[in-house]
Amino acid sequence: MGNLNKIICIVGICIIFIVSKYMFILYQYKEITDIGEYSNWTMTQRPFYNTHYKTKFLMDDSNQLHLNLWWESLTGSIDIKVIDENGDIQFRKKEKNIESQYDIPLEKGKYILSIEVSNFTGSVALGYKNLVMIHNLPNENYRIIKSKPQKGFYWDYILYIPNNLKNNKLLVVPNNTGKSSDNIEVHIEKAKECIMYKSELAEQLGVPLLVPIFPRPNNNDEMYTQALDRESIFTNIEELKRLDLQLISMIDDSRDILSQRGIIVDKKILMSGFSASGDFVDRFTFLHPEIVSAAVIGGSDNIIPYSNLNQENIPYPIGIYDYEKITGKKFDINLIAEVNRYIYKGSEDEGGWQVCEEDGETTIYTGKQYFEKFELPMLNKNLEDKKSPIYVDGNLSNMELKEIMFRAYKSKILIDKFLETKEIFDNLGIDKSEFVIYEGLGHEINKSIESDELDFFNRIIND
């Protein structure tokens, strides 16, 4: 009997040790996944779990894949490999436990990230940078429509048609790659990612969805095409010129495709965008208010319906000083006043991120940090002896635009500038442009914003 009690005691101690160890692993897992650098691929599964996960990705200009690896196990192991197009292994780690970071030199091209899980009891958290995932569009509801220069657009677009169409609107979401690249495959994959994410909204609204595949070239530092910036409006590069007009041609083309399937959509569209894509939507609605029914615009700068502010002429994309030069028509404030717009920003939004190479090291700044460290001293120096107004006619560099905005808004940036923009619209009585601040939120979209976006569009459609 004594031996039996000893055995029970030993077994009990072992069980307590195993449970305690596993609980500690879960605690570590929560701590590590709270760090964004380890959150791209995470797993906590049943004991003795087996799986083999593979995903394809592109390497572009960075030439270095950054991997953050963490896993802890009671049993089994993880075997992670990076395999090139020829089947050669460029990197491999097979361990029971690991917490390490690796910078793996890779040439441009396509690769496979392979994660083999064998008899694993524990938790896994992986992070990666400098890669672009390759996506397979889920089903035939998604179609990539080829460019048709003869119809006015030089780039492909993706069209998503839900099975259950409830409303006669077309939703348009401009693509935002998040980086510049001369490899169109990078922009295609990011556009796929965008349309798969926004297809849930299209499903809920019961409307078709269009996402253009506009490039953001790396060989022109002054041009930010996916934000529909000034340079992309005035460029002489035929394929990149007037992407707003190219988007209208895509919309017209999609209407033809939809009508062939018996789907007739309204002449006025819905639009949604965040960050650079939000800039595109905001600027598009000013240039073409007559074709936009409603727009959701987040984390962006916003045009104001003024030609002048604080003794500065404010041209596109700050204001409307040269609106007629761009559009060939006088600005009609009544048209923009009729567009239903939901414009939001997080109270802690610091304007996205800037990646810099300093002394051979990659440094990431928030937009606010970058502005304060690099741009603010330059602006103060440049503006010491510069008279107002800075702009009357002709070309403008990005720095000159920043100088105009800096003076016009009396050095206000981010949330302070957003509040002044809101006040301008309020004073003009443009109440269909709603300005909303999400307290405690940074440059990001959360579930609350997604829900509010759906409610906004449903309200507009039902009205």
Record field, number of beta strands = 19
If you compute it from the alpha carbons, what radius of gyration comes out, rounded to the nearest whole angstrom?
Answer: 26 Å
Low-confidence stretches: none
Termini separation: 80 Å
**Could you give a short account of the major beta sheet?**
8 strands, mixed
Order of helices and strands: HEEEEEEEEEEHEHHEHEEEHHEEEHHHEH
Strand order of the largest sheet: 8-9-11-10-12-13-16-19
Helix content: 25-40%
Question: Overview of this structure, please?
Answer:
Helix content is 34%, strand content 28%. It has 463 residues and is an alpha/beta fold. The protein has helices at 2-33, 184-205, 230-234, 243-260, 276-287, 323-327, 333-337, 367-382, 398-408, 414-428, 447-462; strands at residues 41-44, 49-59, 64-84, 89-95, 98-105, 109-129, 132-133, 142-145, 157-160, 171-172, 209-212, 269-274, 292-298, 308-309, 312-313, 340-346, 353-358, 361-366, 433-438. The strands form four sheets. An eight-stranded mixed beta sheet has the order 8-9-11-10-12-13-16-19, sandwiched between helices. Strands 1, 2, 3, 4, 5, 6 and 7 form a seven-stranded antiparallel beta sheet that branches. Strands 14-15 form a two-stranded antiparallel ribbon. It is globular, with a radius of gyration of 26 Å.
